[in-house]
Amino acid sequence: MRGIMAPKDIMTNTHAKSILNSMNSLRKSNTLCDVTLRVEQKDFPAHRIVLAACSDYFCAMFTSELSEKGKPYVDIQGLTASTMEILLDFVYTETVHVTVENVQELLPAACLLQLKGVKQACCEFLESQLDPSNCLGIRDFAETHNCVDLMQAAEVFSQKHFPEVVQHEEFILLSQGEVEKLIKCDEIQVDSEEPVFEAVISWVKHAKKEREGSLPDLLQYVRMPLLTPRYITDVIDTEPFIRCSLQCRDLVDEAKKFHLRPELRTQMQGPRTRARLAPALQVAVKGSACRLRRLSPQWTGLGSGPGSRWLASTGLS
């Protein structure tokens, strides 16, 4: 009997949750609370040990020699009472209610109080809301609050959806430096350079007097040699902003030379002649043949794809 009664450590699945529920009930009834957080003249009773266990901010406050260490009341600045209530609910229940309406207040507050779980939840929520109309704003918001993963996700989204992104107000309101950073990127996914050129012109036209002088600096990041000769002559050549700028004309002449003098293309290789990342392309070939020549020295050329691929196929009888 003793041989089959060996000691065993057993962990229950409900213990931690049960403790949290009990602590939350004690908080709501103001039982055994030893500190009151005051936000916008509203009081929030709480337990120091719970706050310190969940937040490095409160841990430092209650364990160091700060003046708040022994005070029964602690004033919290920089957040609203409604946000404080959401954060305390998370501390005691491990659940946070994130919405479009509160996330812009919730994330900075979570950063202030060093509540990593809330910060992560806000970042995941914002990533799920990425859209061509808001991805640039979310990227800046993420950068401000040092949310690296969210910032990278927003950047990738803006690159992947560049033609749609530049149609929205967030793009038009970018600074010159921010526009440069976006359009110089190799990872922009476009079928051609046309939307890049048109985005630059739209940005300049939005505030002509202030931005017209920025056009030559921006245009150097548009890969005009990769545009078709017809687009260069029919669209770019007729654009008044281009015709009025000698520097812009030089860039257009470079693009024309690339097409008119193909023997010089090797010497002209540079950032403006390098293709950007093409959109994902899938090609499926399906069919059958009644007859197949087993060996033929004949080769047929195909158009260039977005990248090099070596594939093998087999003829099946």
From TrEMBL:
Provide one Gene Ontology cellular component: COPII-coated ER to Golgi transport vesicle
Keyword Repeat appears in the UniProt entry = yes
Q: Which UniProt keywords apply?
A: Kelch repeat, Repeat
Output the Gene3D superfamilies linked to this UniProt entry. Answer: 1.25.40.420, Potassium Channel Kv1.1, Chain A (3.30.710.10)
Where in the numbering of this chain does the BTB domain appear? Answer: 33-100
One GO biological process term is: protein monoubiquitination
Q: What is this protein called?
A: Kelch like family member 12
- Which species is the source of this protein? Bos mutus grunniens
Per the UniProt record, the lineage of the source organism begins with:
Eukaryota, Metazoa, Chordata, Craniata, Vertebrata
Q: What's the encoding gene here?
A: KLHL12
